[in-house]
Amino acid sequence: MTTSRYRRILLKLSGEALMGERECGLDSEPVKRLAAEIVDLCRIGVEVGLVIGGGNIIRGAEKAAEGLDRVTSDHMGMLATVINALAMQDAIEHLGAPVRVMSALKINQVCEDYIRRRAIRHLEKGRVVIFAAGLGNPFFTTDSAASLRAIEIEADLLIKATKVDGVYTADPLKDPRAERLAYLTYDEALKRRIGVMDTTALVLCRDHHLPLRVMNVFEPGAIVRLVQGEAIGSLIETGKTRKAAEEKRD
Ligand code: UDP
């Protein structure tokens, strides 16, 4: 297998990726498939941090729209991400790879508390680290958690693996003329108000020069190919990161 182009990545999986054919909740088949891909990533030598959303179980804003208190519903959403993280931990462990769940909310009978230095130590030892419970605060999303954790652990790349295969000029489901953009800067992404990643997350990535790849989570093997250097999905970065990468290649 070709080795990884990156030293350390942060992979963000939407909760919906774990749903399979169900309307909500967890299906063991996609969990096992994604676990196998994550273990493949470890085999090609990349350190893997993982953030999994909770949208397959509860999204705070949706519950709030039904009348539930927003902070309570966000707490429920964060706990949903812990459920997903534990399922993924179990599946990765079954494949024989070392893995730890670290939570931003204190539930340390279930998993470790998030401590940055300890997370980095796990990664250096080749353990997959699953960052659960988002940022531990309401009114945020797991996209923001993924950006922040990626910056904290000094990841080389943030990968958002989601239900679309990149950033489009318009909604491809509504507009047949929509075209996929292979590359754009964060400022362009913010100007276009792209729906695939929230603004807080984009601004954090931009300000810290963290490149982001948006790709389809349902394409088997694509995450590994991307980490091996294949140009999959859309790349968003500041001009500065691109310049640095080009200089490194020369
Ligand atoms: N959430 C939160 N704070 C965070 C991260 C997540 O309150 O830092 C809650 C929020 O209610 C969110 C839910 O957890 O809707 C699940 O996360 P998200 O919607 O990002 O999941 P995804 O859409 O990626 O599956």
Content-based structural category: alpha/beta
Low-confidence stretches: none
Radius of gyration using CA atoms only: 17 Å
Question: Biggest sheet: strands side by side, in what order?
Answer: 4-3-5-2-1-6-10-11-9
Mean pLDDT across every amino acid position: 94
Run of helices and strands: EHEHHEEHEHEEEEHHEHEH
Number of strands: 11
What is the helix content? 25-40%
Bound molecules: uridine-5'-diphosphate
Q: Between the first and last Cα atoms, what is the distance in angstroms?
A: 25 Å
Principal-axis shape: globular
Largest sheet: 9 strands, mixed
* Percent of sequence in beta strands: 15-25%
Q: How many helical elements?
A: 9
Structural write-up:
It is globular and about 50 Å long. The chain is α/β, with parallel strands linked by helices and 250 residues long. The protein has a 9-stranded mixed beta sheet with strand order 4-3-5-2-1-6-10-11-9, sandwiched between helices. Strands 7-8 form a two-stranded antiparallel ribbon. It has helices at residues 28-43, 60-65, 70-94, 116-124, 142-152, 186-191, 199-207, 222-227, 239-249; strands spanning 8-13, 47-52, 99-103, 112-113, 128-132, 157-162, 167-168, 180-181, 183-185, 212-216, 234-237. Bound molecules: uridine-5'-diphosphate (UDP). Residues 14-16, 53-55, 59-61, 74, 77-78, 80-81, 134-135, 137-138, 140-143, 145 line the site of uridine-5'-diphosphate.
Task: Explain the layout of strands and helices.
Blueprint: E1 8-13, H1 28-43, E2 47-52, H2 60-65, H3 70-94, E3 99-103, E4 112-113, H4 116-124, E5 128-132, H5 142-152, E6 157-162, E7 167-168, E8 180-181, E9 183-185, H6 186-191, H7 199-207, E10 212-216, H8 222-227, E11 234-237, H9 239-249
Parallel strand pairs: 1-2, 1-6, 2-5, 3-4, 3-5, 6-10, 9-11
Antiparallel strand pairs: 7-8, 10-11
Helix pairs in contact: 1-3, 5-7
